[in-house]
């Protein structure tokens, strides 16, 4: 499978090598002269380098010629990316070279619409999918064998799942709310609750859940107390998947307000206590995003899953890789 960098939405595999060199030179010259012009005039001011970073950020797309089909949420294990491949009714693995392969489940297991996945501390894989007409979660060893003693929780509408450091399983039921180890801890009947939970992540004994209906992020502590993260700056727009970097910054994938996901984006949240400052990290145009829902971070990159996008079909069914920092 091919892995390609992209400039302004173009894949290098689509560009002649000579044209590629010219394009890189022009891009570099544009960036350099823009920095100079920001501080010109003898007294100037500080160059606005940050505003230029989205154009200079390295963007790569994993080719869709193999398995990727309506990818949803994702997770890493040992630098291998695992993708809940909703349209393919399977789980796809993408290694560090970009090669795709299928996770080998037990023979005869037939399921549909996988959306969420997560690993416990032993490296076992949990997957939320539809089995025999009902949404459920199952647990598998690294070789794909189902763990028979695991209780298969059933939900009305499944989405994200995550396991904390104590292997407690948090699962999103998009109709009823948030379930922890089989018990509803936040949902119908709770003040301020609205259906629409989607992505879930955990860090430092706290669990974070996105609500695409209210554009909020809920925070759940170890005693199951639920608070709302107070946001300032940019507004979230139908937030779905989320992932933490090594510095504790939270990245949130916004599907966007358009029904086709044509204005998807990624927000960066710098969290201090119960508050967070929100800035735009990547836009639809700067990062080739569209119908985006999933996020996963590893080794200095954030990976974002694009689903089916009618307005920009060339962006559909891709995993976009975006560098978190630019030196």
Helix-strand layout with pairing:
Elements: E1 3-7, E2 10-11, H1 17-38, H2 53-56, E3 59-62, E4 71-77, E5 80-85, E6 90-94, E7 100-102, E8 112-119, E9 125-131, E10 134-140, E11 154-155, E12 158-163, E13 169-173, E14 177-180, E15 183-187, E16 197-203, E17 206-211, E18 216-220, E19 226-228, E20 230-233, E21 239-244, E22 250-254, E23 265-272, E24 275-282, H3 284-287, E25 292-298, E26 301-306, E27 318-323
Parallel strand pairs: 20-24
Antiparallel strand pairs: 1-2, 1-3, 3-27, 4-5, 5-6, 6-7, 8-9, 9-10, 10-11, 12-13, 13-14, 14-15, 16-17, 17-18, 18-19, 21-22, 22-23, 23-24, 25-26, 26-27
- What is the radius of gyration? 20 Å
Structural class: mainly beta
CATH superfamily of the largest domain: TolB, C-terminal domain
Task: Supply the CATH class of the largest domain.
Answer: Mainly Beta
| Number of individual domains | 2
CATH architecture classification name of the largest domain: 6 Propeller
Helix content: under 10%
Write down the overall mean pLDDT: 83
Output the keywords:
five-stranded mixed beta sheet, 9% helix, 327 residues, six-stranded antiparallel beta sheet, single chain, mainly beta, Neuraminidase, disordered N terminus, 45% strand
